[in-house]
Fold each of these.
Amino acid sequence: MTSTGIFALTATSLVGLGLFSVMTNPQPLRKIIAFNVIGNGVFLLFGVVAHRGAAAGLGADPVPQALVITGIVVAFSATALAVALLLRLAKQTPLPTLGTDDGSDGDLA
Amino acid sequence: MALAFDTGLALLVLVLAAWTIWVQDTFSAVLAFVVLGLLVALIWVRLQSVDVALTEAAIGSGVTGALLLTAAAFLRPTERAVAPLGAAWCTAAGSLSAIITVGLGAIALLLPDPAPTLAPLAVASLPQSGLGNPVTGVLFVYRALDTLLEKVVLVLALVGVWSLAADHVWGGIPALRPATRPDSTLTFLAQLLPPVGLMLGIYMCWTGADHPGGAFQGGALLTAMWLLVMLAGVRAAPATGLLSLRLLLIVGPTIFLVIGLAGFALAGAFLAYPAGYAKALIIVAEAALTLSIGVTLGLLAVGPAERARNS
């Protein structure tokens, strides 16, 4: 297997791992982190596609590269907004969680 | 040899990803995520996409890491043992994730050969713009509209973050407390590093026309220096209502937009550059954008106002 193939599998594994964590971890901050892991995987897939498209003396197709640079910045903005929402939520309610609502949420104040 | 290195790198990335996901303590998870980002940046270098590697290391790993660390520290008291999901749910989620991973992997390995590419097209028209870096070419010439809209997204995200401030502190100061005593090593670094970082940021923006680098990477470096100064307590976070700060936020997108609109008159299309002036205009836009990106990313990382301006 080539290096590109190995990185392609790494990328898809990152997507899978992140997806699993988004679905199973009840803590919102962990979901945000997992979302970023998925993002890393998706961006790397772009990188693999870019590298496969190496031509005209370039090591990688510049169009997917530019898309990923834009993507990383937008992913950061979305993460910052999500974190700000979460911190605001944490100030309003004692225990921000998306887990089972069994009423055991204590008051931490 | 290269293959062995790449395999090791890939395995390390997967181990760190697993660590990020399964470690109990969120603080450790964030640290693992930061290291993961740096290693992913190495993969980008191996994929010969140095521009992306710089962006990933600076923004995807660095600034995102700073943001997540602050949040993890704040949320630590609330981080009690949350009831984990049942085994059945985990199995179902695991199976679904595995199916998606295998499916995506198959698609990624069975991509058509030879791969479709826009590289020859991108290189063919590049000399007209006077740029030497094809990625900057795509960002500021071929897909300039995407780049412009992305700047607007950054500002919109900041508006969203700021709007989470309470009414009575609107325009006030974000709650970023210095993480250290005023005589610590961090303070020393925060006084020593910023001039060097500033230079590097400006260089990165300037060199982006011909070599890896550009407005995003340069801006992210400025952000890193600014965050360092604020975290060390050398300078306090600014009031979000400051007029000068708000002007800095929009100067980049505004100049880019003005250049874009001038394209109607001078070159017959939105975001078209008149012949011979492309590189000069792009560098003016990039310089302004570097400043705006640096300020916007920093403000996104420190969050909404928490206390009133004059308190």
Amino acid sequence: MYRYDQFDETIVRERVAEFRGQVERRLAGDLSEEEFKPLRLMNGLYLQLHAYMLRVAIPYGTLSSTQLRRLAHIARKYDKGYGHFTTRQNIQFNWPALVDVPDILSDLADVEMHAIQTSGNCIRNVTSDPYAGAAAGEVDDPRIWSEVIRQWSSLHPEFSFLPRKFKIAVTASEEDRAAIKVHDIGLKLYRNETGERGFEVLVGGGLGRTPYIAETVRKFLPEKRLLSYLEAILRVYNRHGRRDNKYKARIKILVAADIVDFRRQVEEEWSKSDRDRLDAPLHELLRIRRCFAPPGFEALSDESSSLIDARRQSRAFDRWVATNIQPHKQAGYAIVNVSLKPIGKPPGDISADQMDAVAELGERYSFDEVRATHEQNLVLPHVKKDDLYSLWQALDAAGLATANIGLVSDIIACPGLDYCDLANARSIPIAQQIAERFADPEEAAGIGELKIKISGCINACGHHHAGHIGILGVDKKGEEFYQITLGGSGAQDASIGAIAGRAFSSNELVGAVDRLIGHYKNNREKGERFLDVYRRLGPETFKEALYADATTD
Amino acid sequence: MPTLRLTETGIAIDDRRHGEEITLAEWREGVRPEAGRFELSVPNTENIEALADVIRQFAAIILEFPTFQDGRAYSQARILRERLNFQGEIRARGAVLCDQALFMVRAGFDALDIGNGDPDGFKRAIAAYSVFYQPAADKSVPVRDLRAARRVAA
């Protein structure tokens, strides 16, 4: 993991002191809420429906056990004993008091954390592959470049007042677990024909009101030129992005208006830039790389007889292994997904005690590392197969052994009308209803991979456009209704879902999802996921099934 | 208008001007400084790079912040300093708030029209950080080079 040196620590401490001063000015009445708003937003502090919400950055989703324990401490001391993992690998606390926020930031700084740029029209916390350094098939650890971007983008003097927020995601694998095609910039590290490492640079993806899949602006960028190229993109955006309409201000609108011209402008800007001065020097790259050296794996046989025995003996454990475990690049190890989607609970929520439990298990079984995923779950990235059964028992005791990763109840949902003052409709209760309908693990496993994503309004924080089944809350004369989109994906086969037709009331929604799944099961061929069948058959038969006996208005 | 100026010797507040202000629109209409020192004000929608030959004739360039959220002038200032090597004054005008002052200074501004702003607040804000990650248009040494220097010294 990356560890702060004196310079990183100085910057974060100075930020805490600066914000403490700003809060004091606000509390003393020297700053109005209007004046204070941009300052608190630079520190991840939102004013929500009922209270302030603090969003804490987890750079590229990587946490140590010490850091996770500190988040538990913050949840207990300053909040209501829980936190909420977001779709951008961050964590939110929903009930902090303004007067406490400087102390919270100071507590975070003690463990090398902060809330810088988790909101505002700036470069947001960079996200990456939650299996970084653990999955096979990576050309390098994407966290090295994620950390380079974190430092470069922190308190950037030119790019802190962009037309709109700006999100960068990095992956180093053909399998896209970071949803790079729905980010303002998606970076895919790979090797070209000559074996040189570089980035495919995708720009202009995004969800929200006008969803777009990112376009490739440069097919191959030598990796050492990353920062100068990012500066060129950001400068073109800062100068030419629309500022007259908040809903047309994201870079995707600029790119979609004329991709050829956009590419020309970026290349022209880049050609004039002082690259050797802007790009990260080799000594710095080597310093950061050393932080991400692989942990001390043991030389093990890939087959674990204790794992095989335990799977035979426990049906529940066997099911959990089948859904929540992914192959590791190191023989004898596994990647463990910890579901934060227990049936009937708000997706992504975790109690302080559970945070402590995961921290303890990360320390004991996973080289002190925990990851947050954009699907609002956690990952223990480096677990010995021999340890899986003990780990599962401990997770189960903490209520964290739900075996549903990638299945129908592993739902992404935004906070919705329960918390958010932008929402038209509630999201969490809908997620809960669907999860409860498919609570039978055998049935859910039989359905296979199915990504349901729920947004409480058109801003699409629940990524409904990228759901195999997407659900969007809409307001119809003061009543909550839900529109269904079909066929979206945020992975390497990214696509934007298409609206199926008339919206459903909350009472009708579970039945509607049920009919879609039934139609899929009736038509699937061996190995096909819901999305595969939808793409093979096309939308019409799914629409027929969806509206077969619906009583919509 | 009180102006906060950063100089080699520190921060000063005065209301000095470098002669008469000419807007870019006036310049384009043919207005020319007769002699001596003048200031040019440039809208933030302007491609400053295309003005390379114009700016050299002025002692100060005034860049605009219509609102504090509109950050286009940060790019203009960096291009002026880093690409066009402009050595005169670059002054920020408009929504110039103390909490953005350090970004302005790092982007290459060396004068801020602070209006009714509290000069001490601005001074505090400009001194709030002692180290910076990224190279920009100011004279600070980025953290990565400080790290390298420390290793060499060790």
